[in-house]
Design brief:
Strand order of the largest sheet: 2-3-1-4
Order of helices and strands: HHHEHEEHE
Structural class: alpha+beta
Shape: elongated
Strand content: 15-25%
Radius of gyration: 20 Å
Length: about 150
Amino acid sequence: MDEIDRRILRVLQVAADLPVAEIAEKVGLSASPCWRRIQKLEAEGVIERRVALLDPEKMNVGVTVFVAIRTSQHDEQWLRDFAERVTRIPEVVELYRMSGEIDYMMRVVVPDIKAYDTVYKRLIAAVPLFDVSSSFAMETLKYTTALPVDYAT
């Protein structure tokens, strides 16, 4: 991956719906070579997909909750059951297996505390958990889906 590929990725992460001609102009290429590079980045899996980012407030899910989960069970079957059930909850938008004292961390988006309580009840009914700790985000200071591209090789 060279600097032109990185420039293309920077542009696409900000506005994936730009016409190829505009992307090409922004990165200093003509349209055809730019399109070929984008196709190559897609074929290699660097570009996984192109999506629309929605405004959480306008979608009525402006409350973000970070949920730390600890479990006393660490076997494969428990993990499969947990992942399968939790990933079916649409309000859970991110889920990570962690190192350290917290076993799993998730980000949940909901309209209000009452809606989170419903999600919480679904969560604790899904599989046995040792501890669930929820923290409500008070203010978003930075949010981006754009990844740093300078490390890409």
